[in-house]
Design a protein that fits this description.
The complex is a heterodimer. Chain A is 29% helix and 22% strand. By secondary structure, chain A is an alpha+beta fold. Chain A has 3 domains: 3-214, 2-Layer Sandwich (Aldehyde Oxidoreductase, domain 4); 223-295 and 356-433, Aldehyde Oxidoreductase, domain 4; 302-348 and 445-718, Aldehyde Oxidoreductase, domain 4 (2-Layer Sandwich). In chain A, the strands form 7 sheets. A 7-stranded mixed sheet of chain A has the order 10-11-8-18-15-16-17, with helices on both faces. In chain A, strands 13-21-20-19-14 form a 5-stranded mixed sheet. A 4-stranded mixed sheet of chain A has the order 1-2-3-4, sandwiched between helices. Chain B folds into 2 domains: 11-89, Beta-grasp domain (Ubiquitin-like (UB roll)); 97-172, DNA polymerase, domain 1 (Orthogonal Bundle). In chain B, helix 3 (97-105) crosses helix 6. The longest helix of chain B is centred in the C-terminal third of the chain and has 16 residues, at 149-164. Classes of the chains: A alpha+beta, B alpha+beta. At the A-B interface, helix 7 and helix 17 of A face helix 2, helix 3, helix 4, helix 5 and helix 6 of B.
């Protein structure tokens, strides 16, 4: 209980580690102002270290609470939500909370004390809620224990509220800031109790984001904005044909252009110009004669990929079963009525507003990278691989992302390129920034699939069988082959169709077969905000609408009947139906469509209200969307995510398609790959209905219901089923 | 295929510009867009690069009070007679009505498009102090991939209120 428990080695270690953190902050948050400080190696030593209470909490003498956040902030609000969860248990003064990112290198050196840095799959909150709350609770215990030691009173007589510790019997008070240094020397308790959710005071509150101020005045530094002393700038071009290689370039044509320092080959497939300014680098790159070895994919086109997928709709080769019950063949053979439809979903690019970028400095002993990343640890691995150095001689400093959407999580091609360039200019920091055109040409695209669905009814109009055959691209086969099932199946292909789990089907169908014919065209796929639920929700929810129509049933009633054993899905569906006034007439000319899914462990439903005028012009007037995420950490941020999800989901539905010609993506910028504007944005009524007992995701789920709700409403308006996307260029009027 | 660099490049340009109320001397190739002068010569990185062809609005600045997409304005077309304002110069203390409204409603998500969005909106309000939703639709054409549009719209209406009643504490309640 007393000072003999002080563990000197623990203290030394913590101070050392925190100093690293402080150095990182200098490099990250004020790159312009702190250039000089950063320039010298060991800049961290200039900052007097504040001892951390534990890995999650640092408290300064002025009561400022620094909460460490391992996941990345890319707009989704996780930074604030995670801080709320630590602060809930810490019982600190929320108005004095600030945050910082530990580096993945520190995480490695400290035996992964911050656990996963991966920020994808709507995991930020639901994947870390228990250990970050424990982090706050442990720190609280140590701070109170420190006060009790200082006063030489039993800890049980002390209480805390808003960073003020009180010893009621003597009337004494102190603050976290005054006992933090002492607390840092104590051993953490072996066990702490987390609060019962009903006692939460900060979790569940619509507090403001912690990261807004600098986003209003230009101070927020994104990767593209980073400036380091002596830094050079690089522009890059990789072979436009997927799988193609760099053959040669003629740098004599550009070497005398203003600012040009060096023209370098990058890995096997790209060339970069390094110059004083990025504009100079980009200008010279455009003038650089480059010869490519385009390789075998030169013959690949959208048409050839479609042929490949069409074959998979009926083939028995390389077909995997994702969910199965009953005997679907028998049910369909015996059906008195069958309905069949085939849908197609295209390649789509993430198109983050901030193009891909990374800054690297390489020496023979050290490689440092500054970059926007959804996964600092993966960025560190990429940096180590490209640097040729042991991983403990590398580190990555994370910077807020100008959009992630899955592009900056599993792929760190931009990091490897930046390191490959910096390696050719030892000691000089080089910032690599892609053009928008490069970003369009070298995405890791939303996978392409087609889906054939066949449903059968008995003579009483009951749905007796459903056969779903997906044909197309597997993300895992390309990105994470080690995550494929033993038989080679990519189970995330079946999001929304699975028997149980985070992406379970919302209906009970007596005879069901869901299959995937894996067909992998040579266009790199990737995780995209929503991953595979986006197209699977269209396939399932539009086809359910087709089945309801074929059975002459109301689409809400038809769904309800199949959802008796799926109360979570039923509850969100009922909530939107009630809020929108389903069954009562909409405004003149306005029609409604429904969609519901369970995805990323949350239950979500939407009802869209649309009109289609005589010229075929679509207007989405309103979307009512309900989400049951189990626990709602910050309802106003959930509202923002749900509203935003409809921009992402409807942009995909209206405009999102990358087509392939001669082995390359045809689109190059926002003129041929548009994104929705404010004039197209519907009103969104957000229902947040946390039912407790589980933790569901928020960033992605409602994207999935955007497109099918609108498509079903278009059908209600026009009688026309659209089964290929995007809607751009399709006449919505009934044929 | 390749441009003749002797014609289009290497023509240095000494220009005096007025940016955020200060006179600055610029020495760059005359084809350099204003965006890259701001970002790379002056360190004003609040003005963002995203599309480079004037479509997305992330690079919006004010020139003589009008919203202009700086990625398509060559520096050679400018001189000290124009008043150029960037996000860094919009207000002294982050307190332009649009910034206040944005803060109260927590408008930004990732925030990358927001300097351009704020510059577009503040120019709109200068020319049209109480825009209708149709005016907003016609004038705010910035791309936001996170999807902040509904809060942007509410933020514009709130900024109008703040403009009309700058001392009204009710405006400071925030609430999203």
């Amino acid at each position: 209980m007393k000072t003999e428990r002080i563990n000197v080695s623990r203290r030394d270690f913590l101070i050392h580690s925190t100093a690293l953190g402080a150095g990182f902050s200098l490099g990250l948050y004020l790159p312009v102002a702190s250039r000089a400080a950063f320039a010298a190696d060991g800049a961290a030593a200039q900052t007097s270290p504040t001892p951390e209470v534990n890995a999650w909490v640092v408290i300064q003498a002025d009561d400022t609470v620094i909460i460490r956040i391992a996941r990345s902030e890319m707009g989704q609000g996780t930074l604030t939500g995670l801080a709320q969860m630590v602060a809930e248990e810490l019982e600190c003064d929320w108005s004095k909370v600030t945050t910082e990112y530990p580096t993945p290198g520190e995480n490695l050196a400290r035996d992964k004390v911050w656990r996963s840095f991966s920020t994808g799959g709507s995991q930020g909150i639901r994947g870390s809620h228990d250990y970050v709350r424990k982090g706050g609770a442990v720190a609280r215990h140590m701070l109170i224990e420190a006060a009790a030691e200082k006063w030489d009173v039993p800890m049980a007589e002390c209480s805390v509220a808003s960073s003020v510790i009180t010893h009621a019997p003597s009337g004494r008070t102190t603050t976290y800031g005054q006992v933090a240094a002492l607390a840092a020397e104590l051993f953490p308790p072996e066990h702490v109790e987390l609060k019962d959710p009903k006692d939460w005071k900060l979790i569940g509150q619509p507090v403001k984001r912690l990261d807004t101020d600098d986003k209003l005045n230009g101070k927020q530094v994104f990767g593209a904005d980073l400036q380091l002393p002596g830094m050079l700038n690089a522009a890059i071009k990789a072979c436009p044909v997927f799988g193609g290689k760099l053959k040669s370039f003629d740098d004599t044509r550009v070497s005398k252009m203003p600012g040009v320092r060096k023209v370098v080959a990058v890995e096997e497939d790209a060339v970069a110009v390094v110059a004083d300014s990025w504009w100079q680098a980009k200008t010279a790159l455009e003038a650089l004669p480059i010869t490519w070895d385009e390789g075998p994919n030169k013959k690949v086109s959208s048409a050839s990929i479609d042929q490949m997928l069409d074959e998979g709709l009926t083939s028995s080769d390389n077909v995997f079963v994702g969910n199965q019950n009953g005997d679907v063949n028998k049910a369909l053979m015996g059906a008195v009525k069958k309905v069949e439809a085939t849908y197609r979903y295209p390649f789509q690019n993430h198109a983050t507003m901030e193009p891909m970028n990374a800054t690297a400095r390489w020496t023979k002993d050290k490689c440092e990278v500054w970059c926007p990343t959804q996964n600092g640890e993966a960025a560190l691995e990429a940096a180590a691989e490209a640097s040729g150095l042991p991983i403990n001689q590398c580190d990555v400093y994370k910077i807020h992302l100008g959009g992630g959407f899955g592009r900056r999580g599993a792929f760190h091609d931009f990091v490897k390129q930046a390191v490959a360039i910096a390696k050719q200019l030892p000691g000089t920091p080089v910032k690599l920034l892609w053009t928008r055109e490069e970003d369009m040409a070298h995405g890791h695209y939303h996978p392409i699939t087609k889906c054939k669905l066949v449903g059968g009814f008995d003579d009483k109009g009951n749905l007796t069988g459903l056969h779903v055959r997906i044909s197309g691209q597997s993300i895992l086969a390309s990105v994470r082959p080690q995550w494929l099932a033993e038989n080679g199946a990519d189970m995330i292909t079946f999001q929304g169709f699975q028997a149980d789990g985070d992406h379970a089907i919302s209906y009970s169908i007596p005879n069901l077969l869901v299959e995937h014919a894996m067909r992998n065209p040579p266009v790199p796929p990737g995780f995209w905000r929503g991953v595979n639920i986006n197209q699977n929700a269209i396939y399932m929810e539009c086809f359910i609408d087709e089945l309801a129509h074929a059975a002459a049933k109301d689409p809400l009633e038809f769904r309800r009947k199949l959802m008796a054993n799926h109360p979570g899905s039923l509850a969100v569906l009922n909530a939107v139906a009630e809020k929108v006034g389903w069954g009562k007439p909409a405004a003149k000319g306005v029609h409604r469509g429904l969609a519901v899914v369970k995805t990323f462990a949350s239950y979500v439903a939407a009802c869209a209200e649309v009109s289609v005028d005589d010229s075929g012009k679509l207007k989405v007037h309103r979307i009512v969307a309900a989400t049951d995420p189990g626990y709602a950490v910050n309802p106003q941020q959930i509202e923002a995510q749900v509203e935003g999800s409809f921009v992402f989901g409807l942009s995909a539905l209206l405009y999102g398609e990358c087509t392939i010609k001669d082995g390359a993506v045809e689109q190059s910028n926002f003129h041929d790959y548009p994104s929705m504007l404010i004039e197209e944005m519907p009103k969104v009524d957000v229902i947040v209905m946390p039912s407790g007992g589980f933790w569901g995701g928020i960033g992605e789920p409602t994207i999935a219901v955007a497109a099918p709700a609108v498509l079903n409403a278009i059908f209600a308006a026009t009688g026309k089923r659209i089964r290929q996307f995007p809607l751009k260029g399709i006449d919505l009027r009934d044929a | 295929m390749h441009r003749d660099i002797s014609i289009h490049h290497g023509v240095s340009c000494m220009t005096k510009l007025k940016i955020n109320g200060k006179s600055v001397d610029i020495d760059v190739d005359d084809s350099t867009p204003l965006l890259w002068v701001l970002r790379e010569q002056l360190g004003l990185t609040g003005t963002k690069y995203s599309c480079g062809i004037g479509l997305c609005g992330a690079c919006t600045v004010h020139i003589n009070g009008d919203a202009v997409r700086s990625c398509t304005v060559p520096v050679s077309s400018l001189d000290a007679s124009q008043d150029i304002v960037t996000i860094e110069g919009l207000s002294a203390e982050n307190n332009h009505p649009v910034q206040q409204a944005w803060k109260q409603l927590d408008v930004p998500q990732c925030g990358y498009c927001q300097p351009g969005m704020i510059m577009s909106v503040s120019a709109l309000l200068k020319n049209n102090p109480n825009p209708s939703d149709a005016d907003i639709d016609a004038n705010v054409t910035n791309i936001c991939r996170c999807g902040t549009f509904n809060r942007v719209r509410r933020g514009i209406h709130l900024a109008v209120e703040i403009n009309q009643n700058p001392n009204n504490q009710d405006n400071k309640r925030g609430g999203a």
